[in-house]
Amino acid sequence: MLISHSPAIVAISPEKTIMKNSLNTHPFKLDSRLESDCEWVVDLALCRLLLMNNASVPWLILVPKIQGATELTHLPIDQQHQVLKEINKVAAIVTKRYNPHKLNIGALGNLVSQLHIHVIGRFTHDPAWPNPVWGQLSPNTYDREQLASELANLRVLLSK
Around Cβ 71, how many Cβ atoms within 10 Å? Predict the structure, then answer.
Protein backbone atom coordinates (compact mmCIF):
# COMPACT_ATOMS: atom_id res chain seq x y z
CA MET A 1 0.00 0.00 0.00
CA LEU A 2 1.31 3.46 -0.88
CA ILE A 3 0.92 6.33 1.53
CA SER A 4 0.13 9.89 0.34
CA HIS A 5 3.03 12.01 -0.91
CA SER A 6 2.51 14.89 1.46
CA PRO A 7 1.43 13.99 4.98
CA ALA A 8 0.59 16.80 7.35
CA ILE A 9 1.38 16.49 11.01
CA VAL A 10 -1.74 17.46 12.89
CA ALA A 11 -0.42 16.97 16.42
CA ILE A 12 2.89 15.92 17.94
CA SER A 13 3.54 14.56 21.39
CA PRO A 14 5.23 11.43 22.67
CA GLU A 15 1.78 9.99 23.29
CA LYS A 16 0.07 10.74 19.98
CA THR A 17 0.88 11.98 16.53
CA ILE A 18 -1.68 12.21 13.77
CA MET A 19 -0.40 12.02 10.21
CA LYS A 20 -3.17 13.06 7.88
CA ASN A 21 -3.36 12.19 4.19
CA SER A 22 -5.73 10.50 1.78
CA LEU A 23 -5.03 6.92 2.92
CA ASN A 24 -3.84 7.43 6.45
CA THR A 25 -6.21 9.31 8.72
CA HIS A 26 -5.76 7.13 11.81
CA PRO A 27 -3.75 8.31 14.78
CA PHE A 28 -0.19 6.99 14.84
CA LYS A 29 0.22 4.25 17.42
CA LEU A 30 3.60 2.88 18.39
CA ASP A 31 3.87 -0.92 18.50
CA SER A 32 3.56 -2.16 22.09
CA ARG A 33 6.91 -3.97 22.01
CA LEU A 34 8.75 -0.83 20.89
CA GLU A 35 6.87 1.13 23.51
CA SER A 36 7.89 -1.24 26.29
CA ASP A 37 11.53 -1.67 25.22
CA CYS A 38 12.34 1.95 24.38
CA GLU A 39 12.25 5.51 25.64
CA TRP A 40 10.90 8.42 23.58
CA VAL A 41 13.62 10.87 22.53
CA VAL A 42 11.90 13.25 20.12
CA ASP A 43 9.54 13.41 17.16
CA LEU A 44 11.36 14.42 13.98
CA ALA A 45 9.66 15.61 10.78
CA LEU A 46 8.55 12.10 9.78
CA CYS A 47 9.92 9.69 12.38
CA ARG A 48 9.60 9.18 16.09
CA LEU A 49 13.06 8.65 17.56
CA LEU A 50 13.41 6.12 20.37
CA LEU A 51 16.29 5.01 22.58
CA MET A 52 16.46 1.26 23.23
CA ASN A 53 16.62 0.86 26.99
CA ASN A 54 19.80 -1.23 26.96
CA ALA A 55 22.98 0.60 27.92
CA SER A 56 25.25 -2.09 26.42
CA VAL A 57 25.38 -0.28 23.06
CA PRO A 58 24.08 3.07 21.78
CA TRP A 59 20.88 1.93 20.07
CA LEU A 60 18.39 4.34 18.53
CA ILE A 61 15.28 3.47 16.55
CA LEU A 62 13.46 5.61 14.00
CA VAL A 63 9.77 4.84 13.51
CA PRO A 64 8.02 6.64 10.65
CA LYS A 65 4.79 8.11 12.05
CA ILE A 66 2.69 6.49 9.34
CA GLN A 67 0.07 4.11 10.66
CA GLY A 68 0.22 0.75 8.90
CA ALA A 69 3.67 1.25 7.34
CA THR A 70 5.65 -1.99 7.28
CA GLU A 71 8.20 -1.59 4.47
CA LEU A 72 10.40 1.37 3.59
CA THR A 73 10.04 0.57 -0.10
CA HIS A 74 6.24 0.88 0.14
CA LEU A 75 6.48 4.56 1.06
CA PRO A 76 6.36 7.21 -1.67
CA ILE A 77 9.82 8.29 -2.74
CA ASP A 78 9.62 11.67 -0.98
CA GLN A 79 8.89 9.93 2.32
CA GLN A 80 11.72 7.44 1.66
CA HIS A 81 14.04 10.41 1.14
CA GLN A 82 12.86 12.00 4.40
CA VAL A 83 13.45 8.76 6.30
CA LEU A 84 16.96 8.59 4.81
CA LYS A 85 17.66 12.19 5.86
CA GLU A 86 16.58 11.33 9.39
CA ILE A 87 18.67 8.12 9.40
CA ASN A 88 21.69 10.16 8.31
CA LYS A 89 21.07 12.75 11.03
CA VAL A 90 20.78 10.10 13.74
CA ALA A 91 23.81 8.18 12.40
CA ALA A 92 25.89 11.38 12.53
CA ILE A 93 24.82 11.96 16.13
CA VAL A 94 25.65 8.38 17.14
CA THR A 95 29.04 8.75 15.47
CA LYS A 96 29.76 12.12 17.10
CA ARG A 97 28.53 11.18 20.58
CA TYR A 98 29.87 7.61 20.87
CA ASN A 99 32.58 7.24 18.21
CA PRO A 100 31.71 3.59 17.46
CA HIS A 101 33.94 1.29 15.43
CA LYS A 102 30.97 0.43 13.19
CA LEU A 103 27.39 1.57 12.63
CA ASN A 104 24.69 -1.04 12.14
CA ILE A 105 21.67 0.39 10.35
CA GLY A 106 18.76 -1.81 9.42
CA ALA A 107 15.05 -2.42 9.20
CA LEU A 108 14.17 -6.06 9.85
CA GLY A 109 10.61 -6.25 11.10
CA ASN A 110 10.56 -9.99 11.75
CA LEU A 111 9.21 -9.63 15.29
CA VAL A 112 7.72 -6.12 15.07
CA SER A 113 6.11 -5.53 11.69
CA GLN A 114 5.68 -1.77 12.19
CA LEU A 115 8.31 -0.06 10.05
CA HIS A 116 11.26 0.91 12.23
CA ILE A 117 14.93 1.46 11.51
CA HIS A 118 17.69 0.59 13.97
CA VAL A 119 20.79 2.78 14.21
CA ILE A 120 23.25 1.02 16.50
CA GLY A 121 26.77 2.02 17.42
CA ARG A 122 28.96 -1.07 17.63
CA PHE A 123 32.32 -1.57 19.30
CA THR A 124 34.79 -4.42 19.02
CA HIS A 125 34.51 -4.77 22.82
CA ASP A 126 30.69 -4.73 23.05
CA PRO A 127 29.05 -7.88 24.49
CA ALA A 128 27.63 -9.07 21.16
CA TRP A 129 30.57 -8.27 18.84
CA PRO A 130 30.85 -9.32 16.03
CA ASN A 131 27.37 -10.87 16.04
CA PRO A 132 24.10 -8.97 15.63
CA VAL A 133 22.79 -7.44 18.86
CA TRP A 134 19.37 -9.12 18.63
CA GLY A 135 19.14 -11.90 21.21
CA GLN A 136 22.81 -11.47 22.14
CA LEU A 137 22.62 -8.76 24.82
CA SER A 138 21.75 -9.35 28.45
CA PRO A 139 19.28 -6.91 29.95
CA ASN A 140 21.22 -3.78 30.90
CA THR A 141 18.69 -1.00 31.40
CA TYR A 142 19.80 2.54 32.05
CA ASP A 143 19.37 3.65 35.65
CA ARG A 144 17.16 6.69 36.15
CA GLU A 145 20.03 9.20 36.17
CA GLN A 146 21.82 7.63 33.17
CA LEU A 147 18.58 7.61 31.19
CA ALA A 148 17.76 11.24 31.97
CA SER A 149 21.29 12.29 31.04
CA GLU A 150 21.32 10.25 27.83
CA LEU A 151 17.96 11.60 26.69
CA ALA A 152 18.95 15.19 27.50
CA ASN A 153 22.26 14.86 25.62
CA LEU A 154 20.59 13.34 22.57
CA ARG A 155 17.94 16.08 22.51
CA VAL A 156 20.61 18.79 22.64
CA LEU A 157 22.51 17.19 19.75
CA LEU A 158 19.28 16.83 17.74
CA SER A 159 18.40 20.48 18.26
CA LYS A 160 21.58 21.68 16.51
Answer: 11
pLDDT per position as a tens digit, 95-116: 999 999 999 999 999 999 999 9
**Which own/partner pairs from 30-33 qualify as long-range (CB within 8 Å, at least 24 positions apart)?**
30/63, 30/114, 31/63, 31/112, 31/113, 31/114, 31/116, 33/111, 33/112
Count of CB atoms within 10 A of residue 97's CB? Answer: 14
Least-confidence region, from 14-28, 79-93, 114-128, 136-150: 14-28
Q: Encode pLDDT of 4-30 as tens digits.
A: 333 333 333 454 443 444 345 568 899
Q: Are strands 47-52 and 102-106 parallel, antiparallel or unpaired?
A: unpaired
Q: Let me know: does 56 contact 18? Beta carbons within 8 Å.
A: no
CATH superfamily of the 30-159 domain = HIT-like (3.30.428.10)
